[in-house]
Amino acid sequence: MKMIWLAVLVVSSLLLAGVIFRNKLSLGWLRRFALHLIAAALALYLLNYSGLISGYEVPLNPTTIGTVILLGLPGILLVLGLQWVLF
To answer: What is the DSSP annotation of 14-81?
Structure first.
């Protein structure tokens, strides 16, 4: 079963790379995405360890970082609000 999932992962990665190169997406897009990814992770890290929000800790995982990349500051507030409601 693991080999099937590995094959699906490899094939889908190759197809994605083909689409990216066929559409000639610029490296600027990749640079902007990487910059936003680093900025979101750094913002969450600094927020967790600065002591600004006592009693809460926003985990650094792909879901929270993705939320912050897409939504920015409201994404951080959304994650904190979800933590407040659920816990």
So the answer is: HHHHHHHHHTT--HHHHHHHHHHHHHHHHHHHHHHHHSSSTT-----SHHHHHHHHHHSHHHHHHHHH
Question: For the whole prediction, is pTM greater than 0.70?
Answer: no
Residue type, 41: A
2-43 pLDDT, tens digit per residue, is 888 888 989 998 998 888 777 776 677 778 888 888 988 888
3-state secondary structure of 9: helix
Q: Which residues, 6 or more positions from 36, have their beta carbon under 8 angstroms from its beta carbon?
A: 69
Cβ-contact 82, 68 below 8 angstroms: no
- How far is Cα 53 from Cα 12, in angstroms, rounded to an integer? 40
